[in-house]
Amino acid sequence: MNYKADKVSWRKSSKEIRAIREQVFIYEYQFPLESEFDHHDTHCQHVLVRDEQGVAIATGRLCDDGKISRVAVLMKHRNIKVRRQVIKELLQLAKTKGLKKVYFDSRLDEVDKYKEQGFVPTGTVYMDAGIAKQPLMCALELFKIAPTVLH
C-alpha cells in the first residue's frame, strides 16, 4: 500500500488530527481527554499520512524546540512503514527549520526500533498514564533522510 505524507496546519486539519489522536490515545490507550490536546497544537507543525483513498491514517507534530510528539497511527494501519513515514517527515521538517537535533518520549517497548534509526536514550524511564516511556534524542546529521517534498 502506498502512503502520502503532507505537512499541515492545525487550523486547516485539526478535525482529521483530532480524530486520529482521539482514537489512538483516548479510546485505545485510555489517556485523559484533557491531557491530549494543548496550546502547542496551534503553533507546532503537523504531518498527516493518508492511505491510497486519501483517508488520514497517521499524524505527528514537531514543536519549535525540536520536540516530536503526538505520533499516532490508526490500528488498522499500524506498521513500521507508516510510523517511519511520520517520523521521517517530521525529521525532514526539523532539518528544513535548521534544527540540529530532535527529541521525543518513546514507549519503552519501541525504543529499540528508534535506536536502529539513530536515536539514543537521554534520560530515565518514567510512567505516563500507565505507559513506560523513555526520552530519546537524535542528532539530525546522524539520521539519513532522502529528500522529500511535503505537500
UniProtKB/TrEMBL annotation:
Claim: Transferase is one of the keywords in the record: yes
Domain spans labelled N-acetyltransferase: 1-147
GO function terms (MF aspect): acyltransferase activity, transferring groups other than amino-acyl groups
Record-linked InterPro entries: Acyl_CoA_acyltransferase, GNAT_dom
Xref: Pfam families: Acetyltransf_10
Keywords, comma-separated and alphabetical: Transferase
Gene3D superfamilies: 3.40.630.30
Domain of life: Bacteria
The protein's name: GNAT family N-acetyltransferase
Organism this protein belongs to: Psychrosphaera haliotis
Highest classification ranks of the organism: Bacteria, Pseudomonadati, Pseudomonadota, Gammaproteobacteria, Alteromonadales
